[in-house]
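pasting Malate dehydrogenase for the record, 219 residues
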Amino acid sequence: MAKEPVRVLVTGAAGQIGYALVPMIARGIMLGPDQPVILHMLDIPPAAEALNGVKMELVDAAFPLLKGVVATTDAVEACTGVSVAVMVGGFPRKEGMERKDVMSKNVSIYKAQASALEKYAAPNCKVLVVANPANTNALILKEFAPSIPEKNITCLTRLDHNRALGQISERLNVQVSDVKNVIIWGNHSSTQYPDVTHAAIKTPEGEKPVPALVNDDAW
Ligand SMILES: NC(=O)c1ccc[n+]([C@@H]2O[C@H](COP(=O)([O-])OP(=O)(O)OC[C@H]3O[C@@H](n4cnc5c(N)ncnc54)[C@H](O)[C@@H]3O)[C@@H](O)[C@H]2O)c1
Ligand SMILES: O=C(O)C[C@H](O)C(=O)O
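structre below
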């Protein structure tokens, strides 16, 4: 039997990440090849025309799993009935800024959108926070959407882990899939600490420790 469509919200859908993300969701890459979706896309009024363009492209693509598109600048309309919310919308950092520098702008956005999710999202909604600083925004969202179970809210700090893997693989000229045990500590800003103390490279001769292979603590 065909599954019921799931309503998926993407905020900031007219932005760079949102634009790349929505076709992937519409193709079933996020929820699976047999899960129909209704996309809810939220952006701010200055981006309304671009958002409408994103909607037109989705319609043109005729994705079989895409059962509807809501493109809106109204947070209530965007949040109504959604079971998954991917919170990308926000102010990105510019040259010379740290992630924490966009906090004041993004925190107020998160308070408002959390309140709309609290009131209008489907029960048991799952939330992924992307806009920076992602972990702080996730905490704000948790505070202002108390009926969403805490375990349903997560944020995308995985980028920092993957970035560390990528840099080690370049430095040591090994495959990224052969790097293991890298840890990222701290906040999703300048207090973050990529820890390679326990990191190792898988080789045909066994595992080799990354600190010894790099042999340069300053790096
Ligand atoms: N966590 C991560 O791994 C990670 C990685 C890359 C980028 N980011 C963050 O993701 C966010 C988006 O990045 P981007 O490159 O797509 O930026 P972008 O500027 O291209 O897009 C952001 C979009 O959000 C919209 N927006 C702004 N305020 C909004 C609001 N109140 N409600 C809804 N939409 C709103 C903007 O109009 C724009 O369309 C930024 O905060 C960026 O720092 C996080
Ligand atoms: O830091 C940002 O502003 C975007 C993203 O999280 C990154 O690290 O590239």
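The pocket of nicotinamide-adenine-dinucleotide (ligand 1) is lined by residues 11-12, 14-18, 42-44, 47, 88-90, 92-93, 109, 130-132, 134, 156, 159 (CB under 6 Å).
The mean pLDDT is 95.
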